[in-house]
Amino acid sequence: MRRVKLALALTMGEPAGIGPDITLKTWKMRFERDVQPFYVLCDPELLKARAKHLGFKIPIKVVEPEAACDCFDEALPVVPLSGPVQVTPGAPSGTNAALVIESIETAVRHVKEGRASAVVTNPISKKILYDGGFHHPGHTEFLGDLAKTYWDKDVEPIMLLAGPELMAVPLTIHVPFVEVPKLVTKELIVDRCRAINKDMVERFGITSPRIAIAGLNPHAGEGGSMGTEEIETISPAIAQLRSEGIDARGPLPADTMFHSEALDTYDVAVAMYHDQALIPVKTLAFDEAVNVTLGLPYVRTSPDHGTAFSIAGTDKASPNSLMASLRLAAALAQPELV
């Protein structure tokens, strides 16, 4: 297996969740699953304690990021945080919020400094971070602000969910469904699809990306009889994109654009709202889906699942999505690895 030149920076995530569990499991399976070298930004004592709790014998080595690739086969490389983490599996506490945030910030800074090839983030609990003073709507928005901090770039981060068969982008994310129609504008569709097209070409190596755009209403409005957003907003946006040379298609009825034969007709789907994108991705690839943030000056991926407090520390958590996240991050950071 060809390896990344610089290790991937893996964040701690919420320490009371399954992040430590799947991190340890992933390293245990590094040879059989061809896991790319990574290091964890974490309290090493947390990982030692969780490994003991799970009955795993895993050597852990404190390193500088640049040394992670060299020791990865023999030990799990860890770059310590500024303080200890006090945690019980399944029992989150706001006292660790600052260290969770520090782990994310440091991973991004390491990429900027040329010490890591990409950022892979373990799941966080937004509620716990809010209790600790976190002021961002979510992980994705925070990562966009870090692009401003370290690259001095104003960006609009975009959530892409990627599975083996389907890549999909929700235009609106964590908002009540009743607000979606007024948020979906021609400008939003055009701006997001331009950015998606750019990253499909530059990051994913797709020369002429085919972008399938879903309708908002049942049957894509059926000629205006079930809503007019397709006529008044979505179709004009598609016409604008096509005039710019972007292969945008639609608006397509969402109930028929995700079956097996339809998937072969496009490279990435653009959905109007959260569940319209996430339901098909998770149905097709629940255990392997990856969350990718487009529009950033660095590569960031994440498992497409949450903290799963109810199974933390029980050895029930699957590491498959984290492994897929590491694999995709490496491929996006170094396309020659594909």
TrEMBL record:
GO terms for cellular component: cytoplasm. Pathway: Cofactor biosynthesis; pyridoxine 5'-phosphate biosynthesis; pyridoxine 5'-phosphate from D-erythrose 4-phosphate: step 4/5. It comes from the Bacteria. Keywords: Cobalt, Cytoplasm, Magnesium, Metal-binding, NAD, NADP, Oxidoreductase, Pyridoxine biosynthesis, Zinc. Its EC number is 1.1.1.262. Its cofactor is Zn(2+); Mg(2+); Co(2+). The keyword Cytoplasm applies. Binds 1 divalent metal cation per subunit. Can use ions such as Zn(2+), Mg(2+) or Co(2+). Substrate binds at H139, T140, K282, N291, R300. InterPro entries: PdxA, PdxA_fam. It is found in: Cytoplasm. Belongs to the PdxA family. Catalyzes the NAD(P)-dependent oxidation of 4-(phosphooxy)-L-threonine (HTP) into 2-amino-3-oxo-4-(phosphooxy)butyric acid which spontaneously decarboxylates to form 3-amino-2-oxopropyl phosphate (AHAP). This is 4-hydroxythreonine-4-phosphate dehydrogenase.
